[in-house]
Amino acid sequence: MKIDIKNVKINYIDYGNLKDGTILLLHGWGQNIEMMKSLGDSYANRYRILIMDLPGFGDSTEPKYAWTVHDYVDMVHIFLQKLKVENVIIMGHSYGGKIGLLYASQYNVTKLIVFGSPFKKEVKELSLKTKILKKLKKVPVLNKLEGVAKKHIGSTDYRNASPLMREVLVNTVNLDITDEVRKIKCPTLIIWGTLDKAVSVESAYELEKLIPDAGVVIYDGCTHYAYLERLQQTVNVVRIFLES
């Protein structure tokens, strides 16, 4: 199905049973509906399931300008209003989780589940490629090639994105929502892998301290995609959380 919001055509699926409420699933950067569907399918017998391709991904069109995470939150709010959803459970991975965190800090959310979701700028040791890029900026002639250099030696997410979505990615990475996260009132489940190199597992424990009603489940030996690597465990843990 398609819906127009903020001059963007958003692709989404809507299925399941409205018996126990509505779950909105938000995928991570560079992903699509399919990355969340196995989770949605697991709860479709009791919940209405909504999964969208976030603008700029899957079969949804790109925004007309470089959106911030706040723009994505506004889009989600309008989306839920158009579909007449009042009490929503949000489940998000990575970037989708960051959108969920910010949304829950502003609007009523029944419960929130996040998987490997960043909320501040990750401080990492500079790679050799990044050090080279920084040195290029200091050379008068070569600094003009910075854009080309970023395209070839930047992160995989950056390299694979269109010019507009690269701006969106920069906006996203640089946005610290620590203060907003403190305002989240709904029960929150945080699931993380110890081998997550995209967002360190320390962030999971920081989130737990920031959110008044939060709990952490850590998957030893799992990566940024821990929720899928142990899908059945995730399904069971989330089900207990939803029923509690």
- State the shape: globular
Average pLDDT? 90
List how many beta strands DSSP finds.
8
Which structural class best describes the helix and strand composition?
alpha/beta
Give the topology, please.
Elements: E1 2-5, E2 8-16, E3 22-26, H1 34-43, E4 48-52, H2 69-82, E5 88-93, H3 95-106, E6 111-115, H4 128-137, H5 146-153, H6 156-160, H7 163-174, H8 178-181, E7 188-193, H9 202-210, E8 214-219, H10 226-229, H11 231-243
Parallel strand pairs: 3-4, 3-5, 5-6, 6-7, 7-8
Antiparallel strand pairs: 1-2, 2-4
Helix pairs in contact: 1-11, 2-3, 4-5
Labels describing this entry:
single chain; alpha/beta; Rossmann fold; eight-stranded mixed beta sheet; 8 strands
Question: Would you write up a description of this structure?
Answer:
- Helix 1 links the parallel strand 3 and strand 4.
- Helix 1 (34-43) crosses helix 11 (231-243), helix 2 (69-82) crosses helix 3 (95-106) and helix 4 runs antiparallel to helix 5.
- With 244 residues, the chain is an alpha/beta fold.
- It has helices at residues 34-43, 69-82, 95-106, 128-137, 146-153, 156-160, 163-174, 178-181, 202-210, 226-229, 231-243, and strands at residues 2-5, 8-16, 22-26, 48-52, 88-93, 111-115, 188-193, 214-219.
- It folds into 2 domains: 2-121 and 176-243, Rossmann fold (3-Layer(aba) Sandwich), CATH 3.40.50.1820; 124-174, no CATH class.
- Strands 1-2-4-3-5-6-7-8 form an 8-stranded mixed β-sheet, sandwiched between helices.
